[in-house]
Amino acid sequence: MRCRTSLPPTDHQPAPYDGPAKQEVLALRQQYLTPGLLTYYRDPLMIVEGQMQYVWDEQGKRYLDGFAGIVTISVGHCHPEVVKRVQEQAGKLQHATTIYLHPAAAQFAKKLAEHFPGDSGLTVSYFTNSGSEANELAVLSAREFTGNQEVVSLRNCYHGGTQGTMALTAHSTWKFKSNPSVGVNNALAPYCYRCPYGLQYPGCGLKCAHDVENVIKYETCGEAACFIAEPIQGVGGAVTPPPGYFEIVYEIVRRAGGLCVADEVQTGFGRTGEHFWGFQNWGVTPDVVTMAKGIGNGAPLGACTTRPEIAAVMRKRVHFNTFGGNPISMTQGLATLEVIDRENIQQNAQAVGGRLKQRLQELQERRRLIGEVRGLGLMLGIELVRDRKTKEPASTETAEVLEKAKLRGLLLGKGGLFGNVIRLKPPLCVTQDDADFIVDCLDEALSELPAGD
Ligand SMILES: Cc1ncc(COP(=O)(O)O)c(C=O)c1O
Questions:
Q1: Is residue 234 lining ligand 1, measured as CB closer than 6 Å?
Q2: Who is most buried in 175, 197, 269, 440, counting CB within 10 A?
């Protein structure tokens, strides 16, 4: 392997690893864990330590975590302030349930409300253990509030792994459609690079947005409980809607009596750079916002936030959750949010993400496998194609780039319907030097592929 790139230096020294060998862990996993679990890489990677934007394997090899534990680490692996606060809480009280009061949940909910636009009315939260459960609650609240049953989600979306959210998820990779999807209808995704109508923005007149109206008209009885969408589709491959898309769709949905739900599980907490929430990039205000992942910097934590009058309907459906709002997750969420504010994490995502995208676009001029670079802030996607005209997905090449990047110390994500989109979503604390390393590493990895020049 020709390798000119090297990771930016770090002061952190990982502790010597003295646990079971990787092969032993793999054998245990194969015997005792469900085969439904996927691993990345021909030789699966074992990660035993993390510090800010870096992780280490059991041999002490360091990697830049370009995928942030699937977009979950926001302020950095084991951020010292977050760790300290959680350790203190773990030594004091680990569990109580929401039948009792605890300051952390109340303080965190207030802090979260302060992060929504002042005129949005989004002030009331329900804490969950995952993004899937937050989305379940969003749909349940919308059905209760509107009295309607029908839900519209988008093709190529991902909303979770529970029965209800699997039904929302329209993406053949996940083989979810065998699940009962009562009252769920899928509209076309605003995927300009592969426009379902073969049109081009802005001449297209945002035809895909009007598909939501068709779906409501022809596939439901003309009424909607809600429309749910990611401001930028994550698993779908950083699919970024054109400006104006959400404004049209939200108006259509509200006219049909429905609520608009923004799934901010990946896009929230400053990841898209210019704004704290993904929806703010599109000039709309949702009625319900769901979140997870970056909210807790690694804690099993999610939330569903809405306006008081919508939240009030949940009195009809007392929804109990043993661990939702537990003191440890709440402390981790609160500490993470405070760090995001204090350390200007969102501003960093904007600055570093902007430079990263610009350099990737320059790389696109030299590497013809790159069909499109898209996304905002540190939520970026690079779609690889064998031919820029036919847009034939370069799926095996994408897997190969991931392998080559790993050898060089860079972990990347992969997504899109054809598995041909490199997903770049590092912890939001990455530096300009890390961004340069990512681009140089990708440049080298692509140059080694037969069609990479
Ligand atoms: C946009 C989006 N929504 C919901 C989920 C489900 O979250 P969880 O895995 O925490 O249930 C995910 C997970 O990847 C996601 O990306």
A1: yes
A2: 269
